[in-house]
Amino acid sequence: MNKITESEIETFAIDLLESSGYDYIYGPDIAPDSETPERLQTAHKSVAIWSGWLVDFQNPDNNDFVVCNQFTVISASSVPGTVNKRPDVVLFVNGLP
Questions:
Q1: Neighbours of 14 (CB within 10 A)
Q2: How far apart, in Å, are the Cα atoms of 79 and each of 6, 29, 32, 37, 90?
Q3: For 26-84, what is the HEC assignment?
Q4: Long-range contacts of 31-37, Cβ-Cβ distance < 8 Å, separation of 24 or more
Q5: pLDDT for 57-69, tens place per residue?
Q6: Contact, 70 vs 27, CB < 8 A?
Q7: Which residues does residue 65 pair with via DSSP β-bridges, in sequence order?
């Protein structure tokens, strides 16, 4: 029996989400330690608040959907013993995870 690797599952999930209309961003390209350390709001459309709503549930096509793999989450330095996290896949709607 063939084993499925974590990388294959990650790639499958990204491909599936892209085919459903999500844009794809490779997380290390926008990581704080990369050559272009922009975060999601500068690498993609900014979060915009209009009429107090962050997500347009009535018109889903008005939202911005992004799948990002290996996105670095920076831990608060004020908490002792914390380390940065890098989830395999993160989904964003209008810049919100």
A1: 18
A2: 30, 26, 19, 23, 23
A3: EHHHHCCCCCCCCCHHHHCCCCCCECCECCCCCCHHHCCEEEEECCCECCCCCCCCCCC
A4: 31/71, 31/72, 32/72, 32/74, 33/72
A5: 889 998 999 999 9
A6: yes
A7: 93
Domain spans of the chain?
6-93
Residue 27 CB neighbours (<10 A): 20
Maximum pairwise Cα distance, the chain = 54
Residue reference for tokens 């004020």:
78
> Which of the residues in the chain have pLDDT under 70?
32-33, 37-52, 77-79
**Amino acid code (one letter) for 33:** D
Mean pLDDT of the chain: 80
pTM of the model: 0.71
What letter does residue 3 receive in the DSSP assignment?
A: P
Task: Please tell me the total number of residues recorded for the chain in this structure.
Answer: 97
Task: Note whether 90 and 22 are within 8 A (CB).
Answer: no
